[in-house]
Specification:
Its EC number is 2.7.1.5. It is an enzyme of class 2 (transferase). This is Rhamnulokinase. Belongs to the FGGY kinase family. GO terms for molecular function: ATP binding; glycerol kinase activity; rhamnulokinase activity. By secondary structure, the chain is of the alpha/beta class. The protein has two domains: 2-237, ATPase, nucleotide binding domain (Nucleotidyltransferase, domain 5); 246-429 and 450-488, ATPase, nucleotide binding domain (Nucleotidyltransferase, domain 5, 2-Layer Sandwich), CATH 3.30.420.40. 40% of the residues lie in helices and 21% in strands. The chain has helices spanning 49-65, 102-110, 116-123, 132-142, 144-149, 156-165, 172-175, 190-195, 218-224, 238-244, 275-279, 302-313, 320-329, 350-360, 369-395, 412-422, 433-445, 452-462, 476-487; strands at 2-9, 13-21, 26-35, 39-41, 44-46, 72-77, 82-85, 152-155, 170-171, 181-182, 187-188, 206-207, 211-215, 230-233, 253-258, 261-268, 283-286, 292-299, 401-405, 425-428, 466-468. The protein has a seven-stranded mixed beta sheet, with helices on both faces. Helix 10 (238-244) crosses helix 17, helix 13 crosses helix 15 and helix 15 (369-395) crosses helix 16. The radius of gyration is 22 Å and the shape is globular. The N and C termini lie far apart (55 Å).
Length: 488
Amino acid sequence: MKSVWAFDIGASNGRLILNSFDGEKMYTKEIYRFTNLAVSVTNNYYWDVLNIFTQMKTAIRTSVQQGHKVESMGIDTWGVDFGLLASNGELLANPYSYRNPKNKMGMERALQNITSESLFQKTGVETAPINTLFQLFTMKTEHPHLLEMADQLLLMPNLLAYFFCGEKNNEFTISTTTQLLDPQSTDWDSSILDFLQIDRKILAPIAQPITIAGETLPVINDELQIDPIKVINVPGHDTACALAALPLKDHHSIFMSCGTWVIIGIPVEKPVTEEQAMTWGFTNEGTMEGTYRLQKNMMGMWLLQQCRIVWEREGIATDYEEENRLFEQAQPFYSYINPDDERFFNPLNMVEAIQDYCRDTNQKIPETRGQIIRCILESLAFHYFLVIKRLETLTGIKLKRIHMAGGATRNEHLCQLIANATTLDVLAGPVESSSIGNAIGQWIALGEMKNLQEAREVVERSFPIQHYQPTDSAGWETAYQQFLKVIE
């Protein structure tokens, strides 16, 4: 049985998953997990990328010590963020985090030179301050010396791959998150770069997914005591990996990648760039097959994660079992929030931010942990329903089922709430969808699987899928209308 290493690195943690394939089924084993948090220094948020790299090497050592031999490795991460390399190949600085507060100012300045409408028409990507485009413009204003010294820009998965194999490219799916890619040519859009006076030469060339980038460098092999390993350009964006792992049946299926963020969408052949899609905040990003997915990037478990941090600071320990108990004890439909309101993006105290929102919208204020947990989960479910209805409007497709994947599928209450709110069947799993899609990209590149269709059949044989059907429909429509009034 052959194996590969799938590094799946998110905006809160990273992990190394060993994925093995016997010709019929895939098997996964978590080898190593580590925390990955943005670091606040001098009013900026950075990623400690050298620590990420160190943790990845520790993960490889752990796997080697357990006797694992692999054919290849692949890396997927969150989108938009990047590192800059000098002409001698050295990293110039720690990469900034998309949560850096200065990005909003950079976006406002950039939009004095080019309109949101024009950007959406050109790229199919929602205009948002987190985008690579506006991070670059912010850097051009705040830290011009970095761009002057930069020889190459590598997006996060490709930066980490470069540390291992020395090859410089930017994989297609992660590149579609930047708002700098021309979907027609599948290359960097020179007109946008010219508008903003950003030198195109720093952007490393686009590489298609499911290609071999190179092999691990001799210095890596010596340090880790391994033979050369193929480094494969899997879909670099974790959402593209997650979508690849979902056994979608037909075009009536919705996908949801659920973690810190939740991304809801459907596959499309080419970007949907009509005005209504832009107004509703949809975006178009790449897939493993080289096509696109029309999707909405939304708040996910970040809200609850940040509440846990507040409670821990207050000395109130919590776990999933207790959260479930508190949720069940709390009154349904007590209060709601708009999960995508700006005040929830990165507040100092998420609990107070939720309470302030309810106060400002003349609602009952959730005081207990159970009330806050239920407020978050019910608001998320209703917000996802709103987006699904808008997807139907944009595409003319009557959607019948939801395929959920990612860590948030472990929250059974959330899955059931989504089924109830949308009145659609929810198929939850596989949980580790991003790492499975990462491995699928490697197996196809290695010739062990023919194509994505065959890979999805393997997924169905290999991993359990939890089925949630709508129940307890009483009061949901009335509650949804109340939610809409609050967020409007």
